[in-house]
Specification:
alpha/beta, 6-stranded parallel β-sheet, 9 helices, 28% helix, globular
Length: 339
């Protein structure tokens, strides 16, 4: 059996539980592919899996240690039975050594090499490099389902995007602009405000210095917005509800500032509001949906309609430092870990 290096946790907790270790590496089985990572994406979800806020699906049935991380890009090194390009025509994924690939919803990405289910991989087009693919897969597919499925943006709508200078926010804001929306962005610093404007946001609100509810109503002439995309969580949830127009939708897709407390559903009645708590895993569960999401994302990147901004790079062995930077809000745009 071969070995590889990985970041593993032997207990749940803070960044210090992440350890750089050698682990065993099995050969790919039927329907599996061995991938050598060139870049790995960092996400808030990684910190939730580390802390235990989002339990890993293998726990507690399979004990720790466990490897976090859900998105990466790299090169196919070997394929198991049923995944070669000469496989039967109805094979859902056909790969061969040397193929450039990426994935965005398979936990266990913090490693140099790993075995991945072939049907969760997508091929990288020539115009998308490893780092930008790793940075964009989960965050880009999240942006896709937010503005293309959970709330299908209509041309001319005004939308509110929280944390628009962050990893998802920078991609989501641009996707909203591709769909001809007016974007109100909230940010936490002047630098992130600059980034939001560079990514096309029409209005930038500094939520630590301004009342974003008042600013949204000022910008919209008191009407409010039909949708709020909120990955911040506890700190912005109440204000987000107040920003909505009649029949508006509050989409709570993250918990960067903490988990939202239980909600009295009767509070939604007056303006007939909808609250959604979607997940990318559900939206790309089928192979067809995965290919649709990745195809749209890569198409926008290649056409330069969406720019994936990598604000920082860390060696994979320093994943704990990357987690500290993310949780202390010291990052901007996307972050990649390099094996």
């Amino acid at each position: 059996m071969n070995t590889t290096m990985a970041i593993r946790m032997h207990e749940r907790g803070g960044p210090d539980v992440l350890r750089w270790e050698e682990i065993d590496l099995s050969d790919p089985g039927p329907g599996e592919v061995l991938v050598r990572h060139e870049a790995i994406g960092l996400n808030y979800a990684d910190t939730y899996h580390r802390s235990g806020l989002y339990p890993l699906p293998s726990l507690p049935a399979v004990p720790l240690p466990a490897i976090v991380g859900v998105e990466a890009a790299g090169v196919v090194e070997a394929v198991g039975p049923g995944t070669a390009r000469d496989a039967k025509p109805d094979c859902t994924a056909a790969f061969q050594p040397g193929d450039r690939v990426a994935y965005g919803d398979v936990r266990g990405a913090y490693c140099v090499r790993r075995v991945v289910p072939a049907n969760r991989l997508v091929r990288l087009p020539d115009g998308v490099d490893f780092e930008h693919a790793a940075a964009a897969m989960l965050k880009g597919m999240t942006s896709w389902y937010l503005c293309r499925r959970t709330h299908r943006i209509r041309a001319g709508e005004t939308v509110l995007v929280h944390a628009a200078g962050g990893a998802v926010g920078t991609i989501l804001s641009q996707w909203c602009k591709v769909l001809d929306a007016t974007v109100i962005a909230t940010v936490g610093s002047a630098e992130k405000g600059r980034m939001a404007r560079e990514h096309g946001c029409d209005h930038v609100v500094f939520y630590e210095e301004e009342d974003f509810v008042e600013r949204v109503h000022e910008i919209t002439g008191g009407k409010g917005v039909p949708v709020v995309f909120d990955g911040v969580g506890a700190a912005t949830f109440e204000g987000s509800l107040k920003c909505l127009s009649r029949f508006g939708m509050m989409i709570a897709y993250g918990n960067a500032s903490g988990v939202v407390p239980p909600l009295d559903i009767l509070r939604l009645t007056a303006k007939c509001l909808t609250v959604a708590r979607p997940s990318v895993m559900a939206h790309v569960e089928s192979r067809a949906d995965l290919e649709e999401a990745a195809g749209e994302l890569f198409g926008h990147i290649e056409a330069r309609r969406i720019q994936v901004t990598i604000g920082q790079r860390f060696p994979l062995a320093q994943a704990a430092e990357a987690h500290r930077a993310l949780e202390s809000r010291q990052t901007r745009g996307c972050t990649v870990l390099l094996p």
